[in-house]
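Researcher: Here's a chain I'd like modeled. Treat it as a single chain, no partners, no ligands.
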Amino acid sequence: MTVAPILPDRSEWTVDDLGDLPKDLPYELVNGRLIVPSPTAVHQDLCVRLLLALEVNCPAEYLVSIDLSMRIDRRNEPRPDVVAIRREHADRSPVPVEDALLAVEVLSPSSTFRDLYDKAKVYAHAGVRTYWVVDPLHERMTLTEYTLGPTGEYEAVTHTEDLFVTERPWKVSVDLPALTARRAGLLARDEG
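Model: Modeled as a single isolated chain. Structure tokens:
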């Protein structure tokens, strides 16, 4: 019989405290709050589809990964659902945030506020140039693309539920109606 690990009781966490966690525990640290995510298969499938769309034209010096820790500061080590980084960090974890060109978060019922507000501020203040938020929680899936504005905060430059095409961080297209249909197919229950 295996016993679940007992996590240290802390109201505020820092990256220095993360060494006390089991090495195989997936976690993220956002504004001093420890989060242990438990994504669904549908959520992870969508992350893989986004990764594949980003890989099509990915330049050789970069790579796209899912669920990769980024060290930002003492109170923040988030794990974007999808991230584009410099290839030279392929064997590091956490990766330095300075080399992240794009962070992508896929909303879930338990992450909406965190992804839209907390993580957006953390990524913007860390200088991540482009941030996508994919919302699969409604009938039609949407993608909002944010870029850093002159004040160092994110500004929405695109919001769509159709075909999304951008040049940031390189030429990428995401067929949101196809992803919406795929999600519906994965969630369909046999009527027979």
